[in-house]
Design goal:
The chain contains two helices and twelve strands. The protein is of the alpha+beta class. The chain is globular, with a radius of gyration of 15 Å. About 9% of the residues have low confidence.
């Protein structure tokens, strides 16, 4: 089994374990470009984002749209404090690392002053490939 497959299986198991235990606030973002999340390419669109923690305390990030096949689960590899400009704005954000023609979700912050920034693995860009960061604001939505 590949490392990615193993991680996805762990993430799926963790998500199933926490689905009925801890339902976190859902956020919504309109993402105007295709992007990678947890090794999967997702189309532009409106996505709901949720961070759940089960009894183990391990965070699992769910990002998905209503379109079939446009969902991903991710287990962040690290967390840290939000940037000062993020906390002063107080808005939840998705941060993407972008290269030529491709972007990957690399950070999720749910907008709470004390909440951590969840960092995700992103594919490596070419050595000389220009890169930039794109941030998308999320808004709170009522859970289904």
């Amino acid at each position: 089994m590949t490392n990615l497959t193993t991680k996805l299986m762990i993430a799926a198991a963790a998500f199933v374990a926490v689905a009925g235990v801890a339902s976190a606030e859902s956020m919504e973002a309109k993402i105007p470009f295709a992007f990678r999340a947890s090794g999967k390419v997702l189309a532009p669109g409106t996505y709901r984002v949720r961070v759940d923690r089960g009894t183990s305390g391990v965070p699992v990030i769910f990002i998905g749209s209503r379109e079939p096949g446009q969902q991903a689960l991710a287990v962040p590899f690290a967390s840290g404090s939000a940037k000062k400009d993020w906390t002063s704005a107080g808005t939840a954000l998705l941060s993407f690392e972008c290269g030529v023609g491709r972007c990957a979700l690399n950070q999720v912050w749910m907008g709470d002053g004390g909440s951590p920034v969840y960092k995700l693995h992103v594919p490596s860009l070419g050595k000389d490939e220009p890169r930039h960061v794109t941030e998308i604001v999320m808004h709170s939505v009522k859970a289904d």
